[in-house]
Amino acid sequence: xxxxxxxxxxxxxxxxxxxxxxxxxxxxxxxxxxxxxxxxxxxxxxxxxxxxxxxxxxxxxxxxxxxxxxxxxxxxxxxxxxxxxxxxxxxxxxxxxxxxxxxxxxxx
Length: 108
Prior knowledge:
By secondary structure, this protein is mainly alpha-helical. Helices cover 67% and strands 4% of the residues.
């Protein structure tokens, strides 16, 4: 009976260790920034394009402001996900260590 319990604890240790590894691996994943694409021929001096202003500002200004704000949100989200995955990985590894310790105590 003790050996059966020992094996069960080792299975839990392997599962918790694997889950900890998976969460640690996810700390390197990030959502990339949204990139503003300049309009074709916008800055070409040979191409005569009309300057478009909306309410006294450049036509692309609201879009650029939105993209800057959105990228700040993405940075905040990436940081919180990194911290969350790190804490989850540490928690799983503590559970793995506890399972190994329980397996050892069961046999002793």
